[in-house]
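JOB MANIFEST
job_type = single_chain_structure
chain_count = 1
residues = 357
[input]
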Amino acid sequence: MPVTTTETGGAGNGAEVLKAKDFATDQEVRWCPGCGDYSILKQVQTVIADLGLKRENVAIISGIGCSSRFPYYMETYGMHSIHGRATAVASGLRIANPQLSVWVVTGDGDGLSIGGNHLLHILRRNFNLNILLFNNQIYGLTKGQYSPTSEQHKITKSTPLGSVDYPVNPVAFALGANATFVARAMDRDPKQLQEMVRRSYNHRGASFLEIYQNCNIFNDGAFELFTESTTKKDSTLFMDHDKPLVFGQNNDKGILLDGYSPRVVSLANGEFSTNDLWIHNEYDLVKAQILSRFFDLPQQFAEGGTFLPRPFGVFYIEETRPAYEELVHYQIQHALDVKGKGNLDDLIAGSVTWVHE
């Protein structure tokens, strides 16, 4: 069986109990005023403190972009690496030191454009680390070009006539890469965001958390339908395991499955009740894939011309697959047990020699 590798966690043994402020550095936080990154930073600091982690046992790895300034503001180990390669750096770190709690911070441009290939492979390999992908549907650091998640017809400095690209769906991408934990949160719902960060950490394997993050300079209001009090309840669906999919201003709407097609139905007129609704199951990959496509599905899947709500929460979990680094360390230990430590000089010399006559 694979060797289990453990992360060093809580303070314990009379050690100092750290608070969120203890994970804040003395560096000036340099994001634009009003940026959603401030909220994400605060929630991550709060959760890591609540988990009882020690600063020296945490490493934050980032690529390039506004989100990638994150390591500067976390009083932990960290590396501001190169564009799209945060996952590659984190993979090596996780294998070299399985005791570290490793967090990857990336953005929709950094993680899904130049870093898309690396993100694909870290998810399928199932390294035991946490990936936080900040999605603001724009390139913020380089001043407002469209990104892989920008909607079609998006007018930006790099697409003055509107983008013709079809956007990447991050949750569907992660599920397609066989990720073992896939979830979504938003910057303007701190309580739910904290819960998703906490659950990401507690998952053994590669956790992927997409976070909707407002860029108030280059893409302000991209997610206001899901964050404003007047529209949030009718446009968002917060999923809880083993609970019916209910939403609406008065929890008066629900979602049922007609075969494999989701339908929005009213719970107000007595025709349907919660007993008729789709019950969310975090371990059902097929249904997770349907949920991930809610904003891709055409309008006719909803009732009365109402679009399907945007799901938030945990889409899918797989708990039985070993982490990649556990398998690697087991393979190495097994080779040592069977063949012994070996000799580097003998390996270089090889078993075939020749003599010139």
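[summary]
Residues 298-305 have pLDDT under 50 and may be disordered.
The CA atoms of residues 25 and 145 lie 31 Å apart.
exit_status = 0
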